[in-house]
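**Archive record**
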Amino acid sequence: MYGLVDGNNFYVSCERVFQPRLEGRPVVVLSNNDGNVVSRSAEAKQLGIAMGAPFFEVRELLRRHQGQALSSNYPLYGDMSRRVMARLAAHVPAVEVYSIDEAFLDLHGLTAFCGTLDARARRIRQDVLRCTGIPTCVGMGPTKTLAKVANRLAKKHPELQGLLRLDTPGRCERALRALPVADVWGIGRQYAGKLHAQGLRTAWDLSQVSEAWARRQLGGVVGWRLVQELRGQPCQDLNPSEDGTLARQSLSCSRSFGQRLSELDDLWGAVSTYLSRAAEKLRAQNHQAHILTVYISQDRYDPLLAPPYTRSATLTLPAGPTSDTLQLLGYARRLLTTLHQPGHRYVKAGVVLDGLEPAGRGQQLDLFAPAPVALTPAPDPARARQLMGALDALNRQFGRGTVRSAASLPRPAAPAQPAAPWLGRAAFRSPAYTTRLEDLLLVA
């Protein structure tokens, strides 16, 4: 059996741990730049506030019902997520961290030592709530997909008290008949419309299709594995790693700006900040990148602009893969210069690192390729690794961004600008209660 534990309205729940006054009130958490709703309390859902709704459309509704809007506080949410995952790991032999608020659990063989799975799941929920303050739901099934189904139904039906186990054919059939096909894990909006046109409305309908149909209509072997998982035949195992996370196949970092930017130096400050963060993540999973992409975007809702709203440039690194921030910045500067158009105003920028491989693997370069033109002086690899290791160690000890490249600092020509002009708006952000000494709660 597999389990899936999901934090209820996770961002809102994190805020309520440190602000009990928010309990029972409609609460929403907003996306970067305070643009859209990305998390809603049960009370906010009852008001009809949709996921992704623009904040300006729901501001008055929240005010009328004594609701509260909060800016995203990702340092807080990330730290609370680590605490939740640590508690889960104390109860089961293996955990796969699927997202910031979800984790798959290995429940095989636990009944021989820990009683019934329902009792075990209740203890897990109680322990997570007691130690972190985060309410959760637990779904259990013989496959990861059925565990997802059980979890989704447990969240939708309060009478289940946050727990559902699908361990018999009858229970599985009832659950699949109750779940719309659009809510099946791995079925997106496009596939949902396609399945509806074929007369498949529920997860049960999907589970009854033939292998030939699944391979033809649902992307080959991936679609057939999905159908098998719905039938209770495991096709996916847990993918735990030493630190409880999975190494990503690509890394990206992007943000919307707090104001429109047109100057190249301001855009470069944003891109260098995002690339430094992506390179830090790259080194954390002990990988290097072969390919770098930089993109900048204009406002697609501006009636005076015509597509394309986003311009991007991609470079296969000529000197081989690297995780050195300084080398990557040299390449990114050239890419950004080719993208920037004077007089245009931009609202977003981002970077993507692709072609990841483990650090230290031997490089295979083209023998007949022309000698690469280095954009920055090629450092000694050993010294570069030592420098990046020292950089990461200082930022871990004293806080992210304590030591950074000069490119990510605001232009000195703008003394009236108190912060970097590319920083997004966060007018309602709560303190970082668990990650900054200055924000620790004081008990009188």
About this structure: Confidence is low (pLDDT under 50) at residues 372-376. DSSP finds 15 helices and 14 strands in the chain. Residues 395 and 403 are 6 Å apart (CA to CA). The longest strand covers residues 251-261.
